[in-house]
Amino acid sequence: MFYNVVVNDWGETTYVPTSAGNILLAVVLVALLAAAAVCATRLKASGSAAVAAFPDSKAGVSSNTRRRTKCIVFCAMTIALGTVLSNIKLFSFPTGGSITLLSMLVICFAGYFYGLGAGLLTGVAYGVLQLLIDPYVLYPVQLIVDYILAFGALGLSGLFANAKNGLVKGYIAAVIGRYVFAVISGWIFFGAYAWEGWGAFTYSLAYNAIYIFAEAAVTLIIIAIPAVKKAIGRIKQLAVE
Predict the structure, then answer these.
(1) What would the CATH number be for the domain defined by 3-240?
(2) Furthest-apart CA pair in the chain: how many Å?
(3) Where along the chain do its domains lie?
(4) pLDDT along the chain (241 residues), means of 10
């Protein structure tokens, strides 16, 4: 009902969502964004990221509603922009994986702005959108690893939402998290594509490191530029105030 089993151009048996499946994914995406907003308003942080102190009062309820609305808008914007940037590929590999223009960084903003819970949920929502746009599912468990866990790990940026140099630390944590799940997926599900003379695990370690860490290196250089760092700080202030 929710998916069709088809054979792709490479002779692989894949799972493709039906119309009903796409509707279900869209509903899940919206629900994840709503849940991210709830997590953001419940987060008790210091400074400008603090939530309303009086949720039972009329003013508190209104404040929470505004924060949730703003969180949904900003998280949805990061997902949309991340999706656009994921299609601007500086380099693509024939068997999957590509170096994109800052797409991982944009998804990390949700965690950096609103904390771990909102970040993880936004990352998962981004994975759901990727399933809607360009699904590549050979096994049901692979779907969970590649689309739920790997993209969800980008929300680990929220671990350092209020830390000094939190964006850099959070981005590194997020990239490492995504890399771990990408390696697991490549090792278990795509070992047959290993280079000649390479084992499935070592191949996955090397292959995924090439494109993930190459993009990370470029991103870290860009966000170290003072003007970029200042602009991101201003965006965060707008997102949480």
Answers:
(1) 1.10.1760.20
(2) 67
(3) 3-240
(4) 86 91 96 93 52 43 80 96 92 78 96 96 97 92 96 97 94 98 96 94 96 96 96 93 80
